Amino acid sequence: MSIIQGINSLRSVRNFKRDLVPEEVIRAILKAATRAASGSNSQPWEFVVVRDPTMKARLTEPMLRTWLDRLGGGRRMSGPLKEVYDDATEMLRNTKDVPVIIYCCFDSNRVSKSEEVRYASIFPAVQNLMLAAHAMGLGTCLTVHGSTSTRGEPEVKKILSIPDNIKIACLVYLGYPGVKLGPPRRKPVEELIHYDRW
Amino acid sequence: MSIIQGINSLRSVRNFKRDLVPEEVIRAILKAATRAASGSNSQPWEFVVVRDPTMKARLTEPMLRTWLDRLGGGRRMSGPLKEVYDDATEMLRNTKDVPVIIYCCFDSNRVSKSEEVRYASIFPAVQNLMLAAHAMGLGTCLTVHGSTSTRGEPEVKKILSIPDNIKIACLVYLGYPGVKLGPPRRKPVEELIHYDRW
After folding, report:
1. Angle A68-A10-A153 (CA atoms, 0-180°, nearest 5)?
2. Percent of chain B with pLDDT over 90
3. Rounded distance, CA A13 to CA A99, Å?
4. Is residue A82 part of a domain?
5. How many domains does chain A have?
6. pLDDT by residue (tens digit) across B155-166?
7. 10 Å Cβ neighbour count for B27?
C-alpha cells in the first residue's frame, strides 16, 4: 500500500473482529509510531498496551460513565453528529471485546511545557501508528475517552498505575476490522487554504 | 513508496533547494492532510500557505527574535541537543529562502474546548501532510516557531491577518530537500511499551 493510498483509505474503525493481534505486530506498529519527529527529538512517548479482559472491563467503567454524563448534558443531536456519537457509545460499551487498547502517553518531564510542543510530540506518532496498522490490515480508532480530566483520565491512570508525570494524550482501539469502509468524506481542500495571508 | 518505508525514512529537513513547489502539488499535499480523522469529524483545520518573499521576511522577525530570546535565557547546551538547536536557528535565519511555509491552524469555534481534542484534530493531519510531501519527493520540517504565545504567535497572526478564533498549531517548512538524510535515530521501542499496566 502506497503512502497516498494509505492516507486516503484510513478510516476510523469502531467494529472489530475478536481475533487477537500478535505481539510482534503490536511492536512493529509501535516502532513505526516512534519514527515520528518530536520537539528537540525528545521522544517523550510511552504506550500502555491493554489486552487483558479484566483490565479492559475495569477501564470501561470510568470512560463510559463520563461519556454518558456528557451526553446526558441535554445536548440534542441529529444527523451525522448523532451517528458519530452513537457509534462512539457503542464502541465504548464494547471496549472489553476490542482486542487491544493502546493508551498513547507522553512524559511531561521529558518534553517542553508548551501544550503545542507536547501534543506536536505525540500525535504525529499516533498517526504513524494508525497508518502502519492500516498497512498491516488492522483497523484503528483514535479516541480521547479516558484521556482528559473530564473523561475519566484520573481513574484510568489509577487503574493502569500510570505515574503522575505521565499524561494520556489519547487512546487507540486496535484490531482486525469487522467492517470495510469507503474513503472518508471531507470538505473540499480549496475552502481551507489561504495563500500568503488569511 | 510504501507506508512503512515512508514512515521509516521521513526525516526533518532543514535545508531546501530554492526550486518552487507547484501549486497543484501543495494542494495535493494539503488534500492528504485533510483525510485525517478529527474530533467528531469536525475538520477544524485551516492552512495559510506562504510563498511571498516579502511576507516570509516579515514573518521571520518575530519568530527569530523570540527564538534567540529563548536561547539567550542562559541555557548551556552541548551534544546532540545543541546540534538540533543550531540547525533550528540556521533554518529560521534562512526562512525567506524556504520555498513554502504552511501555518497549520485550527478554528477554535469548530472544535471541542479540550486541548487533547483540539490537538488530536490537527497534528494527525500535519503528519499526513509531511508523509504525503515525502512521498512526492519533498522535504518538511515541523516547527512551533510562531505558534505559541512566547514564540511570536500574536505578531505572526497579525502579519498574516489571522482572526482571533484561529489558533496556529504549528508550521511546516516545505521544499525540495537540499540534503539526503538517513533513517531517524530513536530509542528502542521495547523501552516504551507497558503491557496491561505501567
Report:
1. 30
2. 90
3. 13
4. yes
5. 1
6. 999 999 999 999
7. 14
Q: Domain of residue B124: give its range.
A: 3-176
Using the beta-carbon criterion (under 8 Å), do B197 and A160 form an inter-chain contact?
Answer: yes
Model pLDDT for residues B28-66, shown as the tens digit of each residue: 999 999 999 999 999 999 999 999 999 999 999 999 999
In a domain, B184, yes or no: no
Banded model confidence at residue A74, pLDDT cuts 50, 70, 90: low
| The three three-digit cell numbers of residue B161, written as one number | 491577518
Instruction: Out of A7, A166, A197, name the one closest to residue B128 (CB).
Output: A7
In a domain, A132, yes or no: yes
C-alpha cell at B85: 538547536
Q: Identify the CATH number of the domain in which residue A164 sits.
A: 3.40.109.10
Phi, psi angles (nearest 5°) of residue B46: -145, 145
State whether A147 and B2 contact (CB < 8 Å): no
Mutation pick from B1, B2, B7 vs chain A, by most beta carbons of A within 10 Å, is B7
Q: Does the pLDDT of residue A178 top 70, yes or no?
A: yes
- Nearest CB among A30, A84, A189 relative to B189 is that of A30
Tell me whether residue A189 is in a domain.
no
Predicted confidence (pLDDT) per residue in A49-60, tens digit: 999 999 999 999
